[in-house]
Amino acid sequence: MIDIRQSKNYANYLFSLGWKVERIKEVNYFIRELSIIGSVLKIQRPEKIDFTSMNRIIEKYRVFQIIIEPKNQNDAVSCMRYGFKLSKNPYLPTKTLHLNLTKPLRFKKETRRCIRIGEKTTIKEYSTPTEIKTFREAWKKSVKFTRFVPRTEQLINLRKSFLEHPHLEGKNHSIFLASHNDSSGAIFIRTKDIAYYWQAFTNSEGRTSLSQYTLLYQGILWAKKQGCKIFDFEGIFDPRFPNKSWLGFTHFKRSFGGYEVTYPGCYIKTNWPNIFPHFR
Q1: Which of 83, 108, 184, 262 sits CB 3.0–4.6 Å from 202 for a disulfide?
Q2: Domains, the chain, ordered by start
Q3: Alpha helices in the chain (DSSP H)
Q4: Taking the chain (280 residues) in consecutive chunks of 10 residues, what is each chunk's mean pLDDT?
C-alpha cells in the first residue's frame, strides 16, 4: 500500500508550503531551494528508490543534501551502498501501529470504558477556514509553547490538499475533529487504503473527560466508513531513537490494539562536490 507521502495530495500540500515537487514514476521528490548553497532533496517511503532519477534531480537542482526515509530494510541497505549514513534524528516516526480495518474492531475492556465516558462530550467537525483557525487557537492553548503548532494557513492548505483524490471523487480525505470546549482535537487524513491519525492535542479538561478516546474512535470509524483497509496511528515510541515525550501517547495508542510496523530510519548524504565541482 502506498504511503501517504507518496500521494499526489501530499505533494500538493508540500507544494503549498514552498517545496518544489517532481513526480517521476509515481515517486515524489521534494526539493527545498536555499540561497547560494543549493537545495535539499527529500524522498520519503517510496515503493522503490530509483537512484537514476534521483541523480537527475540532484544535478538539476544543485542538491547538496539528500534525505531518504526508506520503506524497508532492503532499500536501507541500498542507501548505505550509495554512501548514505543513518541519522540519529529521523524526520518521520520510525515505528507505528497499524489497525486492520477489514476485520471487526475489538478493543480492550478498559478502552471501551474510556470511549463510553468520552462520548458524554460533544464532538464537532471543523472544515471552513474560520473553524480551522479556531481549531488551531485551541491547539495552541492546549500545549506547551515549545511544541510546534502549524500555522492556520498550513492547516487550511492541508485540508484543501486532501479535498480531492484522483480515484475517489466526492469522498472526504481529511477531517478535523474537536471535543466540547475544544478540550481535545485531532486531524485524520487518508489515501485510498490507509487512514492516518495525523496530529492531535488535548488539555487538562480533555484528559479528565477522556474525550481523546472518543475522538480517536470517531476517526477510526470514519476511516472504516471511507473504505480504508489500514488505520495508521502515525508513530509510537521507538527505543532505537528514544524520545521519552512519546511514551505517554504511545500507551494511549496501544490501548486501541493493532500491530507494530517498524521502518529503518532516516538516511542522509551530503553532496558538496556537485555544487562546488572545483573542490573535487
Answers
A1: 184
A2: 4-88+265-279 (3.40.630.30), 96-262 (3.40.630.30)
A3: 8-16, 51-61, 73-81, 109-118, 129-142, 152-161, 204-209, 211-225, 247-254, 272-275
A4: 95 96 97 91 97 95 96 97 96 98 94 92 93 96 91 96 62 86 94 96 93 95 96 97 92 96 97 50
